[in-house]
């Protein structure tokens, strides 16, 4: 075995051509190490070094044979990305630009009281072209690999010195998470593995614009994140204008899939509603929201639109109008909350993430 690990006669391998260990699940690590002819249990050791201990230098993986460590250092790489830039808002929100494999994405760390939430990206850009979302102006560049998703967490943890502090994760950054289903679920498994990041499944939420087949697929996963669904309109006419995905999966079909998800999993879902002044906030919209929510366990999360001057033509209702709309729904006995903007001056709020200049 030791002969198979010796490196003295092997040519050097270009770093960028080496396989990246970061983002591989147990099976992927086992398959790679099987080609080295080493015992299978070493894959579990590497897995723990990568994710539980956040150690990225094979030279320090002290429970592996020295020859194996040397070969891994020479023939593979551990690349979780890099922080290219950070912008901090007065409320403690920090937006990160994270680079990996020649691309960049944005991720956000938010603090509210004792609660910390990391908002992750799942794609570079987005293909769904929602009219009120700045990311849509980028179009879709590519899906992120699992390691590029998990890497956002590792980099923010290290930058902020979080150690073992608890936090929540929301896939509400750049991209449509369920459009990158396999990559997001691989990252989810690493994040929730007791020998990975060790997060509770209840601390992770995936937000979707309404990809019905992917919602149905998610319901069949043995372990899954919480589900949040962007509704954003009460009629198909308005929703199709705001969210082209509605032309394929209109509101009735979307709610049917969400209700089936709840029946199959026992997990309630959240409906998200971005408030756009003069577009989806009329008394008739409130009445239709009451009808939609009545009899469902779903909670409605109202999100005042976060303006992006020059890029997007929308504005939010006034604070008084938002509170009045919420109260009319609460008076109907419905579960409603407001997600007030955080990190706006760093362009880190919901719908503002994009690698674009301040003005077109």
Task: Describe what you observe in this structure.
- With 360 residues, the protein is of the alpha/beta class.
- The protein has two domains: 2-75, Orthogonal Bundle (DNA polymerase, domain 1), CATH 1.10.150.530; 82-346, TIM Barrel, CATH 3.20.20.
- 32% of the residues lie in helices and 18% in strands.
- The chain has helices at residues 2-5, 26-34, 41-51, 66-75, 146-160, 181-192, 212-219, 236-242, 251-265, 283-293, 319-330; strands at residues 82-88, 94-100, 103-112, 115-119, 123-125, 140-143, 168-171, 204-208, 226-230, 270-275, 299-304, 336-338.
- Strands 1-2-3-4-7-8-9-10-11-12 form a ten-stranded mixed β-sheet, covered by helices on one side.
- Helix 2 (26-34) packs across helix 3 (41-51), helix 5 (146-160) crosses helix 6 and helix 7 (212-219) packs parallel to helix 9.
- It is globular.
- The relative contact order is 0.11.
Number of strands: 12
Order of helices and strands: HHHHEEEEEEHEHEHEHHEHEHE
Can you tell me the CATH superfamily of the largest domain? Aldolase class I
* CATH fold label of the largest domain: TIM Barrel
Q: pLDDT average, as an integer? A: 92
Work out the helix count.
11
Give the strand line-up of the largest sheet: 1-2-3-4-7-8-9-10-11-12
- Large-scale geometry: globular
Main sheet makeup: 10 strands, mixed
Residue stretches low in confidence (pLDDT < 50, at least 5 long) are 1-12
Into which percent range does the helicity of residues fall?
25-40%
Computed Rg: 22 Å
CATH class of the largest domain: Alpha Beta
Supply the number of structural domains. 2
CATH architecture of the largest domain: Alpha-Beta Barrel
């Amino acid at each position: 075995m030791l002969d198979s690990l010796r490196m003295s006669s092997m040519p050097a391998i270009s770093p960028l051509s080496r396989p990246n260990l970061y983002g591989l699940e147990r099976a992927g690590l086992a398959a790679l190490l099987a080609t080295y002819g080493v015992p299978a249990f070493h894959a579990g050791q590497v897995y723990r070094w990568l994710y539980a201990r956040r150690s990225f230098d094979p030279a320090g993986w002290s429970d592996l044979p020295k020859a194996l460590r040397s070969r891994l250092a020479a023939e593979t790489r551990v690349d979780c990305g890099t922080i290219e830039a950070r912008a901090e808002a007065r409320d403690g929100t920090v937006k990160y630009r994270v680079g990996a494999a020649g691309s960049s994405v944005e991720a956000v760390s938010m603090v509210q009281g004792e609660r910390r939430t990391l908002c992750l990206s799942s794609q570079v850009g987005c293909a769904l072209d929602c009219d009120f979302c700045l990311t849509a102006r980028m179009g879709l560049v590519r899906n992120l690999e699992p390691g590029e998703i998990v890497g956002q967490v590792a980099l923010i943890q290290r930058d902020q010195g979080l150690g073992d502090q608890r936090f929540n994760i929301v896939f509400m950054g750049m991209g449509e998470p369920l459009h990158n289903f396999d990559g997001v679920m691989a990252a989810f498994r690493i994040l929730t593995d007791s020998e990975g990041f060790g997060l509770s499944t209840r601390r992770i939420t995936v937000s979707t614009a309404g990809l019905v087949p992917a919602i149905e697929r998610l319901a069949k996963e043995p372990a899954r994140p919480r589900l949040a669904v962007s509704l954003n309109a009460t009629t198909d006419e308005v929703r199709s204008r705001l969210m082209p995905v509605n032309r394929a999966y209109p509101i009735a079909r979307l709610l049917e899939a969400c209700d089936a998800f709840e029946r199959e999993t026992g997990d309630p879902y959240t409906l998200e509603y971005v408030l756009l002044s003069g577009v989806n906030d009329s008394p008739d919209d409130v009445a239709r929201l009451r009808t939609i929510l009545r009899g469902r366990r779903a909670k409605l999360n109202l999100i005042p639109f976060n303006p992006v001057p020059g890029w997007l033509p929308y504005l939010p209702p006034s604070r008084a109008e938002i509170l009045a709309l919420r109260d009319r729904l609460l008076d109907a006995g419905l579960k409603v909350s407001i997600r007030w903007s955080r990190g706006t001056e760093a362009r880190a709020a919901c719908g503002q993430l994009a690698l674009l200049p301040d003005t077109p």
